[in-house]
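User: Assemble these into one structure.

Assistant: Restating your components, then the assembled model:
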Amino acid sequence: MSNDPGLMLEVQALYTAYADLIDEGPISEWPSLFVETALYKIVTRENLARGWDLGLMLCESRGGIEDRAYAIEHLSLTIPRRVRHLISGFALTTNADGSFAVTANFAVFETIEGRVTTTFASGRYRDIVVREADGKLRFKEKISVCDAATINNSLVYPL
Amino acid sequence: MTVHPHKWENSGTHRVPYWVYTDPEIYARELAAVFGGKSWNFVGLEAEIPNPGDYKRTAIGESSVIVVRGKEGEINVLKNQCAHRGLEVCRQDYGATRAFQCPYHQWTYRLDGALSGVPFAKGVGGHGGMPDDFDRKDHGLTKLNVTTRHGAIFASYAQDMQPLEDYLGDKMLTLFDRVFNGKPLRIVGVSRQRIPSNWKLMFENIKDPYHASLLHVFLVTFGLFRVDNPSRTEMDSTGRHSALVSRRSTNLDPNAATQEMASFREKLELKDPRLLDIVKEFSDPATVVMQTIWPNLIVQQQANTLATRQILPAGPDAFDLNWTFFGYEDDDDAMRTRRLRHANLMGPAGFVSLDDSEVMDLAQRGIHVDPEQQAVVEMGGRGREDHDHIVTETAIRAFYGYYREIMGL
């Protein structure tokens, strides 16, 4: 756990921006929170426990993350919906290379237009955050580990 | 045969009444006649349970079953229901064990389902105990009929099943063996989704290739699947299984088949093109083969992503779709990475399949209010023969031909 409250606040601001860009949009800005060579992956606990590499979403660069954002906005047929991320329980350690290993819990609610809000997913982030030359913190790695093995129909937005 | 209040008005299958997707009585009959009947149900891949004692829990229809590798390496499929009081004895989705023990009164079963232990069978201090004629041999877990082919496991509640090879028929067997070619398989991972629609709509989605060229903007934009690609739609002799086989073309007229597609984007390029870094891995020219095998399996090969999709019905209005992505043991590192990348196309977040799960949700919502209305299934005519194109719903009509027979409708 970091004992630098300033750093923790800064990290939490990164996660707040992450949630806002997905939940409130524009999703096209969501990739800007990642470094160019970032890895973004959604996995399930089941696959992790069984030693299987499959990601439900896998992006291996900011370009790949941009492709995903574009597809969500322009290519996929989706029933209109809104998601809402709640992120809590931050823990941070500093790696030998100066990057930060951050874990946090997430809960995501989904509200499909015309329907009641449901709990869509819960899980844990296992991330690596770095400070880039412009002084901003960005995700070098973001792994969303989903508690449930079964997704409630479609996984439209990033977790 | 149960007399049903609903009547299928037409003798053909170019009209499908909506009550087949919504009626609880029809659904109950499907569990018995389709999944519990004379069918080979796909239950998993051998590579999921490589060692003796390895097991997975799955279901046939709604009936929970354990697929377990026995002491001699054989595969047993056991009904997950204690012979005493009916509890599910296996409470985990996967694992490794030496025996299955019911938590309630600790009746214990071997990996082959035989009942090996009943606590207090001889009573305690002269009290209680089972009757003298109680024989453990009569109280094992129900053992299903099992067959395997090249790493795929199928089970049936019917003991008098025809061999899987005959069940598939020559044409479907050849396509099955294209992916399940005998090479040892390697599991890439599983994804599962609960889709809020009737299970048959999943089959129809695959058996109707014409939607893909209209609905799936991603597929069409990147040339993975188009209605003007050289293609064919074919069935086995019963109509219960089908396959769509298509070949990716590089020199297509961009206007020919896309002008009716509202959102086609010709100039789009991926920022990370590794997503579609496709290599040819099969000896035939096909680049997409989607096979549906009665009553619960879809075998998918699109680009370099291979997967089984197992259908697990959950009431008339929902089903679970369990995807098992796989490759081969001898895949090199580049192919392992490629399969992970191409998996982005499929599953609950798939660039392609996401459209389908959304459409199935909309279909069920539209259908359930009007059981007496009918779907119009006339693309490509009203017949059920093979077609050398994919502008057709012939495979849906063929499916319902067999379905009506099995269901007595």
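Chain B touches chain A at residues 93-94, 187-196, 215, 217-218, 221, 263, 265, 270-272, 274-275, 320, 325, 336, 340-341, 343-344, 347-349, 351, 354-355, 357-359, 361-362 (CB under 8 Å).
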